[in-house]
Amino acid sequence: MSNSTASNSPNKKKKPLPYFMERTEEAALPSFQNRRTLADHVKDNMLCAGRKSYFQRIVYVGRHPKVTGMTLRDRFLKLIKELQECTVCEIKLFGLMINFDGYTVHMVESAEETVGEYLRTLAAADLFEESRVVLVYNNINQRLFRKLVWRVSDYLNELKRTELDQRDPNLTQGTINAFLVQVYQLCKMVREEELDESKFNSHRERSAFKSLYLDENYEEHTPDIAVLEYLLGLKCLFTVPEYASFYGRLPDVSSFRDRVWPIPKDLTPYDVFEAGKYDVNLTFGGK
C-alpha cells in the first residue's frame, strides 16, 4: 500500500542543473561545439545560486571624521533605511559593514541596481573624508550574507602596522590581494558566528552583546591603519563618488529595432557605388 501511495504521489519539480553537471550526450560536447556565450555562463551562475536576479559584490574602504563607531553605525543605518523606503527595487542590500576608529571596511552585495542606487546615495551623503572602491565582483554565484550585518571595533590603533616597501613593483597588487583575503576571512568568521544558533541560545546575553563588536579573535584578519591609508591613497582606484557617477545608474539600452520603424530589410547604403573626388581607388584600376 505504501508503494502504491508513493507511486501515485506527484513528483516534485526539480531545478535544472547547470550545463557542466548535466549527463546528456549533448551537454558532453566540447564547448566550441556548444557555442556557449557569456550570457550562458551568467545564467549558470544564477542557476547555481538559485535565483533569477543578477547580483553584484563591492568592497570599499573609507575614512571618516573622528566620531564614535556607534555614531557612524546610526548614520549609515539611517541612510540605508531611507534608501529602502524609497527604492523601486524589491531586492534589499546585504553584506558586512565594519567600522573601526574613524575607518570603514564595507562589503555589500545585492542586485546591481540596488548597489548602484546605494552608492549614489552614499556619495551624496558626504560621510567620507576619503574613500576607495577596492573590489567590484559582477555576477556572483553565491551570497556571503542573507542580511546586512554590522560590526564595530575599537582595536585598530592597537594593531601592528604593516611595513610597505614603496620600491616593490608589485606593492599595489600585493596589498590589494592581501587586503581582500583578510576581508573574505572576516566575512567567513562573522557569517559562522551569525549561523551559530546553538551558541546564541546557550549564551544569549553575551552573544547579543558580541554581535555588535569584533573581539580579539578577529585582530589577525583585520587590515591595519597602514594598509587602509595606502589603499585610500591609490589614485588607480575609484572613489565612491567617482564610481557612483560612472556605474551607479544602469543605462537604458535601446536596440535598433526600438528606434526605427518600419524595420528596413536592406541595410546597404544608397550611395555605396558612388565615388567622390577625395575617395581612394582600392581596385588599382582606371579612374
Automatic annotation (TrEMBL):
Q: Which domain of life is it from?
A: Eukaryota
Write down the InterPro entries for this protein, in alphabetical order.
BLUF_domain, TEX47-like
**What are the protein's GO molecular function terms?**
blue light photoreceptor activity; FAD binding
PANTHER family per the UniProt record, alphabetical:
TESTIS-EXPRESSED PROTEIN 47 (PTHR34035:SF1)
Matching PROSITE patterns, A to Z?
BLUF (PS50925)
Question: What is the protein name given in its UniProt record?
Answer: BLUF domain-containing protein
Q: Where is the BLUF domain?
A: 55-153
